[in-house]
Design goal:
Helix content is 25%, strand content 24%. The strands form two sheets. A six-stranded mixed beta sheet has the order 5-6-7-8-10-9. The chain has a five-stranded mixed beta sheet with strand order 4-3-2-1-11, covered by helices on one side. It contains five helices and eleven strands; from the N terminus they run βαβαβαβββαβαββββ. Helix 4 links the parallel strand 6 and strand 7.
């Protein structure tokens, strides 16, 4: 399986088109969007279409710019799956997630972030490869030190330490785009707006 993980589109239709073209050119099987599809819920038209036109499967979690209402609409209007609190299986690969962040008008408490990830993970715990998808980055990381404004999530950190997924995709801090680090055996990757291609 080849995965393109992206984030922080913020309603940029031209960026969505470029990323969809990349997904096609690199023969990606699945597109994972780590939140902030919109810019404070402004019209997200044209954000998902370019991927679907190229017959790509799309999974996403909402970011701190996306309300739960907008996420629900996207999942109903398009044939895509909102991973917030849920999981999916593709053969021996399990993918689970939690959206939002620990800041902003619709912030989630750290305990809720942790509990949401644990709940979603239980359905894919036996999969050979497990991928965790969040918007916010874990606390105590290099990513967290790239900004003075957006603290990392202790809930995400705790979930990674306990569950030890193979991969943890996140974003949120644009300045940390492309940074990779390890928490135990988990490879934590800030995918950013350019995206990250992973072969499993």
């Amino acid at each position: 399986m080849r995965i393109l993980s992206i984030s922080d589109l913020h309603g940029d239709r031209s960026l969505a088109e470029r990323l969809a073209k990349r997904a096609e050119e690199e023969h990606v099987d699945l597109v994972l969007i780590c939140g902030d599809l919109t810019y404070f819920d402004q019209e997200p038209k044209g954000i998902i279409g370019p991927f679907l036109e190229r017959k790509k499967k799309v999974l996403f979690v909402p970011g701190n710019h996306d309300s739960f209402a907008t996420a629900e609409v996207l999942a109903k209007v398009y044939p895509i799956r909102n991973l917030h609190g849920y999981s999916v299986k593709y053969d021996d690969v399990g993918i689970f997630g939690c959206g939002k962040a620990n800041i902003g008008a619709e912030r989630l408490a750290e305990a809720e972030i942790h509990a949401t990830l644990k709940r979603a993970h239980q359905y894919v715990s036996a999969q050979q490869k497990r991928i965790m998808v969040t918007h916010v980055h874990p606390s105590g990381t290099v990513m967290e030190r790239m900004t003075r404004f957006f603290p990392g999530s202790a809930g995400v950190r705790k979930a990674i330490e306990e569950l030890q997924p193979d991969i943890a995709f996140c974003s949120h801090v644009h300045e940390a785009e492309g940074i990779e680090e390890r928490i135990g055996k988990t490879r934590v990757i800030n995918v950013g707006r350019r995206g990250f291609v992973l072969d499993l």
